[in-house]
Amino acid sequence: MNLTPGRAGLVLLLLGPTLPGQLECQSSAIPRLASGKPDFNGIWQALGNAHWDIEPHAARPALAMQAGPVVPVPAKEVVAMGAVGSVPPGWGIVVDGEIPYTAEAKAKRDDNRARWLERDPEIKCYLPGVPRATYMPYPFQVFQSDSKFFIAYEYAAAVRDIYLKDPGPPQVDTWMGQSVGKWEGDTFVVVTNGFNGETWLDRAGNFHGASLRVTERYSLIDRDHMQYEATLEDPETYTRPWVIRFPLYRNIDPNARLGQFKCVEFVEELMYGHLRKRPAP
What we know:
CATH superfamily: Calycin beta-barrel core domain
CATH architecture: Beta Barrel
Distance between the termini: 66 Å
Number of strands: 11
Order of helices and strands: HHEEEHHHHEEEEEEEEH
CATH topology: Lipocalin
């Protein structure tokens, strides 16, 4: 292909974000605290459809399906939602594309997917766990100083107080686990374990067990973009450690703030409505 100088410049402009050494060139542009550490303070959010399914997937009519006269059709609970209940396509955030489940765990994942409406913890407003909280379709805010690193999530008012000094093994298992962070150059590395094994990784039934260990890596690309990577290890569920990776985007609206989405009261009817003296029809 012959390129005029103008076209060559356009190609270089389009390829610029992927040129070798680009991240290094931008390192001087990232915001920093007085101590010199990268400054992650702000409201961040993931884009894309990984919250539906973290593996690559085509669009489909629904997650919950039922037998139809010819082919499966959406379950009766989502039929009335039409396109709103359908699943948009996604290119996935799993490095190498597929989660390395054991045979038994993969069968459980498939069963989870078929019974999504009754099993997904998100539907019941349970805390989302790590790393799912990071790529749900809701923002989160980082509060950082030289001595503290705290993350507040809009969904279900979930929070993480990330220890900068290891307090020892988790005393109890929890939905969000215990997180301990350290710096590796300009990358903030967080190791989280102590999970209760009840959270999922997305709406498609992908899951983990209580022995999950997540190692997250937060790296600023520039002032408004962050590279997020997490390695998941759980020998009871996966045949090997595996990685997810995607960018995060800072909300640059000067009026941006986290909303109140304490959804517990919104699911009372779903979970306890049958106990009413006169249940709703």
